[in-house]
Every structure is written in C-alpha cells, then in structure tokens.
Q: What sequence folds into this?
C-alpha cells in the first residue's frame, strides 16, 4: 500500500433505490398513465424510486463502494421490497486531484 | 389483583401514544406509562406498545429510522425473551423494519391515506392477543394510514398461514374476505400478524381508538383484554364485565 492509499479522499456515492420488479409500483403506474395521455406511446414502463447522495471520506474507491453497499443493505433499502444500485466517483474538488 | 404493566414507547412523531396509554391505564385499569425512545432501559414491564404515528416523519421508509432509537435494542431483547410487544400502525411498520415481524407495509394500493372504520375477522383466538375473541368473530376498528399494504414473499406467506400467524383480516360486516373489503391492497387481506412464537403482534388497525365506550365503538378493548387475561387469567374477565356496564 502506498502512502497515497492511506490518505482519505472524498468520494461521491449516488444511490438509486427502486421497488423490486415483482412489486407493483402504483406511483409509477399513475405517472405512466400521465405519460400515455400526453401521447408518448413509446414509453412503456415507468417506475419511481429514490435517489440518495452520500459523500464518503475514505482512502480508496473500493472502500467507498464497500461502505456504500453496507449502508444500502442496512438502512437505505429494505430487501423485502426494494433493490438498490449505486455509482461511486472521486470528487475532483476534494484535494485538487482528478 | 396485580396489575399488568404496560409501557408505551414514544418516538418523535408518535401521535397515538396518549390514546394507547389512556386505554391501557384508564379504560382497562392497568399500570401504564410512557418510555421515551432515547431511554435504554424499559424497566419492569409486562407489555410494550409501539404506538401509531409518523416516527421521524416517515423519512426514508415508514419505521426505518425509529428502529435505530436506543430503546429499540431493549425492545428487541425483551421480545426475544418472550415479552409481549404490540405494534399498532406505525408500530407495526417499525416491528417489520426491526426484523421482529416478517414482511413489509407498502404504499396503499389507492396511493391515498385511508382513515375509516373497517371490519376485521379474527382468524385465530388461540393467541395471547385475541383470546377474548372467538375465531371468526368480526370486529369494527378504525384504520388511518397511507402505507398499510402488507406484502411478503410466497414462502413467508405460506409459513404464516401454516402456523396460524395471520391474526386479523379485512372483511365485510358479515366476515367475508372480499377485495372490496380490503382498504389498502394487503396480501390476502392481512391486517395483523403475530411472530412464530406468538408474543409479538403487529396490526394496522387501531384498537386503542375503539376502546372507550364513550366513543360507541369498543371492539378494540378485546385486544387489550386478551393481553391482560394472558397474565391474570379469567378473574380479569369477571371484573371487566362490571366495567362495561358502568
């Protein structure tokens, strides 16, 4: 491990939580009806979920991903009804590094 | 006669805590007190009530944040040791989030908050929460929720049915389980369940809102009476009859 790997960097996790495919999403259905009444017949499915941003201070991207996954499983989603996905990017402005 | 000791947990956003405490204490004549969610000790208690309301503003998911309150560790420990826990409405949601009851309460099928009297069929009188009822009896108790649509996976439903863990189902006044009688889209019209051990009940309807005879609806008393009977036996039943007449 290089000394750089031990230094905290700022990462941005973008988490998306949606109802599981097997679960009816009545909000999504209502919006879908609206979309169709506007004439957008090409749109065939609308699902509504939550978008959550986390700023994470850890030395590596791997650690940021592990931590994000952990908090998704423990709090941000309920596995009985929801799925989650996320992306992690290092924040450029953190230490002036890309 | 020794009195049964009720503790009503109060979270920021609880709003049925006073009703529950009043019914257990004033109407049913038992010991009844509040426990603030920041406490880490339940004290000497026989029954814990997790009341309705909007704990933490229903942020993220109903009940999702409340389960991290300090007192919940103690409630989980109490339940695992066989203590009686009743979660009403938001309390039911908190118990599922805390893993004390299976399943989840989804947004109502109608997407609307529904506040009205409904009919419930008692599916089993062989629980400590329904022993004062008859199996098949119909109770009239109000609901008031936006997320009461019970859901769980097929395997869990089968287990709930096999173990008679489904305690209350939404029904018609005659006790029929129809889709019209289902106010929120709950799987199999489920309104209340117990855990496998039978000491934890979660129900969306509010028995505490239908327990004071002044309100002309007192069916909810039967849930409280069942709980009390499970501690003190039939002697309570004869005593409570005089309470109904007064």
A:
């Amino acid at each position: 491990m290089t000394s750089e790997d031990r230094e905290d960097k700022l990462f941005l996790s973008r988490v998306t939580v949606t109802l599981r495919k097997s679960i009816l999403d009545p909000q999504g259905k209502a919006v879908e009806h609206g979309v169709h009444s506007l004439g957008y017949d090409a749109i065939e499915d609308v699902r509504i979920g939550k978008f959550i941003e986390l700023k994470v201070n850890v030395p590596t991207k791997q650690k940021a991903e592990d931590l994000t996954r952990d908090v998704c499983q423990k709090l941000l989603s309920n596995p009985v009804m929801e799925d989650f996905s996320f992306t992690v990017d290092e924040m450029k402005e953190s230490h002036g590094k890309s | 006669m020794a009195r049964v000791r009720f503790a009503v947990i109060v979270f920021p956003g609880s709003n049925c805590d006073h009703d529950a405490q009043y019914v257990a204490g004033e109407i049913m004549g038992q010991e009844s007190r509040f426990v603030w969610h920041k406490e880490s000790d339940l004290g000497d208690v026989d029954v814990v009530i997790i009341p309705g309301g909007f704990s933490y503003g229903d942020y993220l998911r109903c009940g999702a944040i409340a389960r991290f309150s300090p007192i919940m560790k103690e409630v989980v420990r109490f339940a695992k040791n066989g203590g009686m826990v009743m979660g009403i409405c938001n309390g039911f949601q908190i118990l599922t989030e805390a893993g004390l009851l299976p399943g989840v309460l989804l947004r109502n099928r109608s997407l609307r908050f529904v506040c009205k009297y409904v009919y419930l069929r008692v599916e089993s009188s062989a629980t400590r929460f329904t022993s004062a009822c008859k199996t098949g009896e119909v109770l009239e108790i109000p609901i008031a929720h936006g997320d009461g649509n019970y859901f769980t996976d097929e395997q869990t439903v089968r287990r709930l049915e096999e173990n008679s863990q489904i305690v209350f189902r939404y029904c018609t006044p005659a006790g029929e389980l129809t889709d019209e009688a289902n106010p929120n889209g709950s799987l199999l019209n489920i309104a209340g369940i117990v855990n496998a051990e039978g000491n934890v009940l979660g129900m969306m309807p509010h028995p505490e809102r239908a327990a004071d005879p002044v309100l002309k609806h007192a069916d909810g008393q039967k849930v409280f009476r069942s709980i009390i009977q499970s501690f003190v036996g039939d002697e309570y039943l004869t005593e409570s009859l005089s309470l109904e007449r007064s």
In short: Strands of chain A lie at 9-19, 49-58, 82-90. Helices of chain A lie at 3-6, 26-37, 61-76. Chain A is about 35% helix and 30% strand.
